[in-house]
Amino acid sequence: MSLAAPTSWARPNTADLLRRHWPLLPLAATVLALLVPVPAGDASASGKVGPADAASLLLVFVCGIQALRGRVRPLSPLGVLVLGLPALGLAVSTVTAGDPYAALPGFVRYLQVFVLVPAAIVLLVRDASEFRLAAGCFVLLALVQGTVGVVQFATHTGASYQGEDIRAVGTFGPGDVMGMATVVAYGLVVATAGALAPGLPARVRRASGAAALVLVIPLVLSFSRGAWIATFAAAGLVMALAGIRRALRVLLALAAAGVVLVGGLGVGSEMVAERLTSITQVSDAPDQSVTDRYTMWAAAESMWRERPAVGVGLKGFPANRDSHSGLALSSGSDTAGAGQAYIRQPLLSPHNMYLLVLSEQGLTGLIALAGGWLALLVAGLRRCLSGASELRDCGLVAIGLLVWQLTDFLYADIGGPSTVLTGVIIGLAAWWALPSQGGAVGLGRRRAGGRGRAAVTASRRGRRPAAGAVAPEGAAGR
Hints:
478 residues, two-stranded antiparallel sheet, 63% helix
């Protein structure tokens, strides 16, 4: 008997990896393109296609080519319904809008973020290793942006906050103060899941834990109350799903890091404490930003009551805001610092995704979009609780990111360069929650006449495939 190792055990070289995983390059580019600095004043500009958006369109194009070649994962009927129903709701809202032509850009944007990008990810990501590759890109993006943010705080080159240029905003600039906080929070949730997931190598768990602790610093220095709340909710759920003992270890490490950073080193301690206190004062003594948010929420509800079924139409909130708002609404928010002069930015959305959808798309759009998100959350939690330990890390990442996004939608909505990552998160959550019934078909079809057929035949007869035979993709862990 030959003692040579089977070829399937051989470590693949770079060419083999690129040959197998090249369709995921646009997905990695969609995430990592957010490292490109945003020109001053362009962070929240609408109608502009940034590098991340261009990469996401390439991702959709590659998915279409692979689908025509029969090299994508098959979708279950539930997957088709969850991923396709929002397109129908968007079409109805566009056609019934007061100005369908003005609503058309909104239709394209929503279709990109909530339909095309998630569907492309579900179809292209074939196994857990490719899922982990996408998740790792979130951590890399967060570490780089977080580093820039910490430098901004230390050197007083960040966005203006309470009269000082210390707010960490990364490369997103003061026009998108939530951009860095969002991507850092994404990376922190992914790193927390990697640190707690059973089955991963010890070195991966240690590296993930270290990354999570490091990312706490820029998240705190972003002074974003919304990101703090969403991260606390998502990380808490991830810890609960991973197990009480593991969660306690992480909580102790985070508490120790917080004491050292804020208490011992005094990293923005007074401002952080004031910001934390303001979370509990949103009803008793709200600041102007909270007052504006309440006023716009009331305006969104008023628009929905005017047209409860289909709303005022996509992109209709800014045009109808003043006629539905009270006198407490200010003219806009002030932004400055981080290389940008003083700019007064108008308030063009209610800063609540659910109310934005309700006001512009009515109950039709809300059921189509939020109903699909709820279905993904329930299905994902059920699968995560049912076992599948070899894929547990993927489940923790998917559930953590989805819960973060759904929590953040309570006081934020889409807008800015990081919006495209919302589609990536929904796609990863759908990949986990809606596993294909037949597995991935690409490799099996390409090799159906060779080793792939031998593996399938052997498995049907109850025998172990011969060394070198290739089992159909997606069979493991399904």
